[in-house]
Amino acid sequence: MTPEELFTAALGLGRQWRVSECRFEGEPKRLELRLEHVPGEHFECPQCKALCGVHDTIERRWRHLNFFQYRCELVAKVPRTWCRTDGVHQVQVPWAREGSGFTLLMEALVMFLSAEMPVDGIADLLQETDTRLWRVLIHYVQQAQARRDWSAVRRIAVDETSARRGHRYVTNVLDCDGARLLLMVEGRSAEALGSFAQALREHGGDPAQIQAIAMDMSPAYVKGATEHFPHAKIVFDKFHVMLLAGQALETVRRQLQHEGAELKGSLWSLRGNAWNLSAERQKQRRDLCAQYTKLGRAMTLRETLQAIYASPDHGTAESQLQWWCGWALRSRLEPFRTLAKTVRQHWEGILAYFDSGLTSAAIEAINGIIQLAKRIARGFKNFIYFRTAAYLRAGCLRFELPVIN
């Protein structure tokens, strides 16, 4: 068996193609396999699939998997067929997709590495430019994204995350039941929900099928949900409500410190939940709350609000939350008075949690994965790269890649 016959068999070229020449040369060394079509062969017209004769050829080059440690490239004069119906068209070669400078197996390797490495790292490993690799990733991600079926999506979560410096944000939409990223769009306006409504129709769904939307209290998201998903119940995330309570407590602490209270070194003793603190910090929290009555009232208000979220049913939670709002309004603590007014303004959405149990915890986790990918890559050149990386990491996409037999 000659080297040409060996590489023809190894590449699985079929009956229409063969390796005509092998070159191992250059500095650094590289393997170049020159391919040719079998003389007299007819090829399918890319448009109507009729068998047609060869009109002329155009030389093309593709990067293939390395030959041991050496770079390997395929070079072929690709035929163009002349069809009586559709005219002259270039045929599709079996080892690469149309318009790509990589073979299918090389693209499969790039997709495999992208699950574990940033694109810059893949570029260094394969000695390719990152721009060429991004074209491969974008192609397969867009292809997989277009095939997704959202007809079973019923509950979603919406949240923003930072895209780059300068207060530039993107909106992420998550399937709460499947824990998968559905869509990322630029900005954090009401139109972000409009974009998802349109994408939902394109993926076999309908806005009327969405039953609940978990979100923070962003007026833009509330407006978008009301306009584009009128049948969905808005659920305000309980973690966001507790974040507001924590901020109110922090404001009280700062006011006391400004008035001369000895609270130096108490920041982390007063933040978060008591069961997550060491015994020493728990003691410091108790002592400070006993020493400063304003701080004690603020801490009790926060912890009572958190206890309300453990209510067994909607009715119990509603009565307890109504009582808590009255207490907060009478507490003479302006930050908690403001919080009570906020709770009443978003009453239905906050109480909706006790019916659905829906939170934004999953989308916060997804945002963490996306931000980790951004830090590893040291940022992305543009939004398309950022969105592609997000779908790769959190979209649970299924790719149609060649399998090595």
Report on the architecture of this protein.
With 405 residues, this protein is of the alpha/beta class. Helices cover 46% and strands 21% of the residues. It is built from 16 helices and 12 strands. The strands form 3 sheets. Strands 1, 2, 5, 6 and 7 form a 5-stranded mixed β-sheet that branches. A 5-stranded mixed β-sheet has the order 10-9-8-11-12, sandwiched between helices. A two-stranded antiparallel ribbon has the order 3-4. The longest helix has 21 residues, at 238-258.
Q: Kindly provide the radius of gyration, computed on alpha-carbon positions and rounded to a whole number of angstroms.
A: 30 Å
User: Which structural class best describes the helix and strand composition?
Assistant: alpha/beta
* Percent of sequence in beta strands: 15-25%
Task: Please identify the oligomeric state.
Answer: single chain
| Average predicted confidence as pLDDT | 90
The rounded distance between the terminal residues' Cα atoms is 21 Å
Instruction: Write down how many β-strands occur, each being a DSSP E stretch of 2 or more residues.
Output: 12
User: So what's the overall shape?
Assistant: elongated
Total DSSP helices: 16
The run of helices and strands is HEEEEEEEHHHEEEHEHEHHHHHHHHHH
Main beta-sheet annotation: 5 strands, mixed
Q: What proportion of the residues is helical, as a percent range? A: 40-55%
Residue runs with pLDDT of under 50 for 5 or more positions: none
